[in-house]
Amino acid sequence: MKRFWVLFGVVLLMLYSFTGFVRADPTGATVTAGTAVTGSGTTSDNITINAGEVMSANIYGKTITTKWAGFYGNISGGISLEDSSGNVFYNWSVSDVTGAVVYAANDTVSDWTLSNASEADMPAYVQGTATDSFSNTFTASEQFTSPTKTVDNVLYAVTYGTGTFKTYALKTTSEIIFAGKSPGTAAGFNGNNVDYQILVPAQSNTNYYFYLELP
Fold this sequence. Notes:
Structural class: mainly beta
């Protein structure tokens, strides 16, 4: 009997140790979507010129991309202990979202074994050498880290704002995933305070599935 209790205690100690180190994979996230907006390109100017004249004319043009879209906003949530009816036994709220990661995937994700994505993994419309191609957008690489994931040599792009808003290009065996790591609340591209920004390839009616990993 003494041997049984010693063995039982060892098992409990192992379970306690594993619980202290194992974190859950990213969880599906509820999204409250705003109104999608877009900019406008430059319009055509005209110049009058007469025969026999030469004139300098510096030309500027701006085109709105047909290959990319962006998500931005705030992060909230927590970790909960509750029963199957949603009755909360204890809740751990998150007040500082620095290090949280928002994932936008092109399909639902069941296996969160991640690796770095390349141009060959991208939709055909962002491949190639166009000015707004994947290779001309995701131009830097570094180690991607999250509360549960570490992937080496991941390509990323930095979107505009006073915060360093990076979008990482990742993949599983069957999905492409774009990850926005929160630098904490900072002014985004439009001057408003946000927690994350993600740049994603998109054309008409492109679907993305959202997941969240809290710090």
